[in-house]
Amino acid sequence: MTTVDSAEHETPAAEVDRCLDAAATAAPEWGQWAPRPRAEALSAVADALDAATADLVAAAVTETGLPEARLTGEVKRTTVQLRMFADLLRDGSCLRIVIDRSDPGYALGARPDLRRWLVPLGPALVFAASNFPFAFSVAGGDTASALAAGCPVLLKAHPGHPATSRLTADLVRSALLGAGAPEGTFDLITGRDAGVRALRDPRVAAAAFTGSVAGGRALFDIAASRPSPIPFFGELGSINPAIVTPEAARERGEQIAEGFVGSFTLGAGQFCTKPGVLLLPRGTGLPERVAELADGVPPARMLTTGIARRYHERLGELANVAGVKVLTSGREHADPSGIPAVSPALFHAGPVQNLHEHRDVLLDENFGPSAVIAEYEVDDALPGLLAAVAGSLTVTVQTSNRPDGEERARLAALVEVAARCSGRVVFNEWPTGVAVTPAQHHGGPYPATTAVSHTSVGTAAIERFLRPVTYQNAPDALLPLALRDANPLGLPRIVNEPGDSGRWR
Amino acid sequence: MTTVDSAEHETPAAEVDRCLDAAATAAPEWGQWAPRPRAEALSAVADALDAATADLVAAAVTETGLPEARLTGEVKRTTVQLRMFADLLRDGSCLRIVIDRSDPGYALGARPDLRRWLVPLGPALVFAASNFPFAFSVAGGDTASALAAGCPVLLKAHPGHPATSRLTADLVRSALLGAGAPEGTFDLITGRDAGVRALRDPRVAAAAFTGSVAGGRALFDIAASRPSPIPFFGELGSINPAIVTPEAARERGEQIAEGFVGSFTLGAGQFCTKPGVLLLPRGTGLPERVAELADGVPPARMLTTGIARRYHERLGELANVAGVKVLTSGREHADPSGIPAVSPALFHAGPVQNLHEHRDVLLDENFGPSAVIAEYEVDDALPGLLAAVAGSLTVTVQTSNRPDGEERARLAALVEVAARCSGRVVFNEWPTGVAVTPAQHHGGPYPATTAVSHTSVGTAAIERFLRPVTYQNAPDALLPLALRDANPLGLPRIVNEPGDSGRWR
């Protein structure tokens, strides 16, 4: 979703090496902390950030130009997120402990005593995002979930907000050390070369990334081509199609137009869940209304010069596609920061068939406040069209208030395909604004992510940094405390007694 | 773990294409079967295989030369495995349904209604293994778990047992079709080129493989370099170190020598969990006793000519390492099948430091009945040595009957490192013989597997073929049955009511 600016300060190779060494040394110790003290350490980080909210927000306002209220809310989201992972650890079921007691009468012959739980992968390299200077940056969801899993984190800062990153990192580091975590549990590096160096290093066991398809794919390829490949949890690009039924357009067209404009221009369109394309039934007049509303949205500063430049180039590409009409051209305005501010841009691609024909340009994410509208006929095969769209984080469906009869019958196939090509299907709301809850899924087929089975938002994000280990026939005193007979840590465990066919979770 | 012979019949490209088309067409339908009918279909496959056990075993005896009793047991393991996945589906908790009801008072602002569950990835390509002609072949664990997840399976047969594969495939296909599964839910292809063609095809959504490091890495690289990369669950090579404490050697040296020889020569050493290296305290005399016992093991036919050839080459490499002494050379015998039979081979690498120095050869898996012994001094840093070994499926530790005092203190660090570099730590038993149970983990860091967070044995293997999808604010009638308010399928679900901080599983 972002492009990296060139002026990034590079952490020297020797310092990257020192950080990696410290992380590798910290990994066994931090990884063996019991869930509850680890939860306390995460809470201490949250407390430290909460206490410094004013300073953090001030730094981020200067660097990103985002509104103070939005940034204050984002610090809160970041600390709530850290506390949710702390609660997850206190609950302990995320360790998924399963004990099969030995069973001489097991179906396939005597079964030994087997005890399985999840352990941390080891040092995690996290590439921070541009667009959430707190919630997906230094102390964001990737860091929180990796630390909760027991992985030390080496954080590669985003060049869009270096001072905010450094300030946050200092708070995270001292809170962790203050809670007794070993040196090396958290460090910050900067610079593209430093990030690549760390990604290639055998001491790094996993990586997480939020950014552009081009940048993310290059890093994924590095992770996959290492002598020992590692998991790479990349969140790259997503077009997030939104589809409006004829019934919805008739019933609440104005509300939909307002909602769409609000969503695709939120944060200057620099959200990974921005709805980039809107499919409307033909002849509603809504495209013009959407354009009118978009014209009324004040210009907003882009996050970085690089993002603004790439956004501008993409506007030109979109406008040059055959059959595309520019509804609103998206003016650029000077900003005291030197980084351009932009007004929303809106394109009309004509019939959905044209969208499909030129999908390489029209259905490729444009990071910024632009969107493409296309119109369909009621007998167009929308599910087929949707299936041809590349993987997305979300698909949004706008229905009438009580979808039934013909509308519901048509929607059934569409919703099924929406679930096949995305990770979240949103009804009658908009995809921006991702709730941090247990049932959340923020992921999807490539290029939305490089790891389709995982989420980067919500408590399930911890799964990315864990792996199973089973102990067979172990003397009790040699087991980790969590797996001993007496269960001294009081963790939730599934225990399959002899004769049980076996429960799994 | 295997090498592919060259005489493999190639499924023509047009037929591979037809199979992929059928799988892609079947995927939405098979993927939407409710868990219980899907369980019935798996049980029907198990029934069909059970009923044909005699024919299946006869075919496999001819093709593999494995003993009839072993193969009969393996058919049973295969069908028990299918029925375990059927039971898992009947239980339904593997779908991990979590419902967060909308909550206007949620910590970060109003939370919408979110419902998360797991859905199948889509068509899975399964490369069968050489060494388990049933349990890890056509209807083996990969196939059973992918089908249970709701993924159609395209099975690339192993050339070591083509007739057995075809016979099994016909039974699987007709049992599935008989249970009402769509055409394309299961098909078989043969040949290396056919497998690679399928792996590159955009209709394939995931792949599983059991085989050699060289072959598996080549396929992993193809999967990772696709325009849309897919998950590749490869189980490649594993050295499976076994370590004997001085106390254990004193207390039950003879039993350990017998157990080790039994384990590394089982199935002519062609198990992925074969203990390939044994670390003994110096001066026990056990190396000679192990060699004596190994000499008494009758020759056994290798699985394929290719495997036998590679095994023979590797014996030469091992014998040529500086400081290595051949304790038993591993004679080759003619077999009526034309594929060589071999006696066990045993090497003494001297002190563990020599093992470490030449680890590229000595600690590289040799698929067949060979093993390497090394001796350590009590003050050698065994944990450090173990940490330098590449990722393994297992580490085995032989202790005294009641490890305490000094032995236990020394073991604590060793066991911790064992869990870091493997997926299963075995005590006072041997790693061959992998129980199929909920707490089992058959996986490990690269090169043991290419996906460290997953297992290929045990019910958790289903997780490889599932991904989450969340529905936000969906009208009840547009939700999958499993997620509707009335829970018409009666599935286990976690429901977080307003005010709940949120449970996750």
From TrEMBL, chains A, B:
It comes from the Bacteria. Keywords: Oxidoreductase. InterPro entries: Ald_DH/histidinol_DH (IPR016161), Ald_DH_C (IPR016163), Ald_DH_N (IPR016162), Aldehyde_DH_dom (IPR015590), Aldehyde_DH_Superfamily (IPR050740), ALDH_KGSADH (IPR044151). This is Aldehyde dehydrogenase (NADP(+)). It holds the Pfam family Aldedh. Residues 11-437 form the Aldehyde dehydrogenase domain. CDD domains: ALDH_KGSADH.
